[in-house]
Amino acid sequence: MKVYHHHPTPFVFNILKVFLGTFPFFLIIFLLKESVNMQWYILLHFIVFILFSLIAVYMSLIFWLDKLIITNHRIIFVNWKYLTVRDEVEAYFNEIQEINTKEKGLLSYFRAFDYGSIRVETAASHVSIDFQDAPDPEGIRRFIYHVKPQ
């Protein structure tokens, strides 16, 4: 019925952290400019750029592959830990005991910052769905209660 991905705002902050992390490396290369020839200088810039671009692409894939799927019978959470490792957790509607949501204070009234976490607890003690950086957690909770048979 619906598929939810992470909210883009925390992703943008994480990508900005990666790009801010490149500046010390570029500064070191700039300071070494006089001691290396121009070919090595350009090659070092290229290597640092490619390395941090690969890190950003890896973080992007992990971030956008995670999803919360709500069907008419169950909730499925696909959580990618690495590109080769993923966890899938499912909870049927008749097993759901409690749904908890958390949002980030007053800023959550603005759509750009309306994200938080949603935790779905089931009757089985080992099965719980914890979806971080969920867009509009209260909306997801209301949708689940709307779809869930009484």
Structural features, described:
The chain is of the alpha+beta class. It has a single domain (1-150), classed as Roll (PH-domain like). It contains three helices and seven strands, in the order βααββββββα. The chain has a four-stranded antiparallel β-sheet. α1 packs antiparallel against α2 (38-65). It is elongated. The two termini are 18 Å apart. The mean pLDDT is 86.
Give the SSE map:
Layout: E1 2-4, H1 8-31, H2 38-65, E2 67-70, E3 74-80, E4 86-92, E5 96-103, E6 115-122, E7 128-135, H3 137-147
Antiparallel strand pairs: 1-2, 2-3, 3-4, 5-6, 6-7
Relative strand content: 25-35%
Overall tally of structural domains: 1
Could you tell me the CATH topology label: PH-domain like
Overall geometry comes to: elongated
Low-confidence stretches: none
CATH superfamily: Pleckstrin-homology domain (PH domain)/Phosphotyrosine-binding domain (PTB)
Please count the helical segments. Answer: 3
Main pleated-sheet profile = 4 strands, antiparallel
CATH first level = Mainly Beta
How many angstroms separate the termini?
Answer: 18 Å
By secondary-structure content and strand pairing, the structural class works out as alpha+beta
Overall pLDDT, averaged? 86
Q: Tally the beta strands.
A: 7
Radius of gyration: 21 Å
Query: What is the oligomeric state here?
Result: single chain
Order of helices and strands: EHHEEEEEEH
Report helical residue fraction. 40-55%
Tell me the strand order in the biggest sheet. Answer: 1-2-3-4
CATH architectural name: Roll
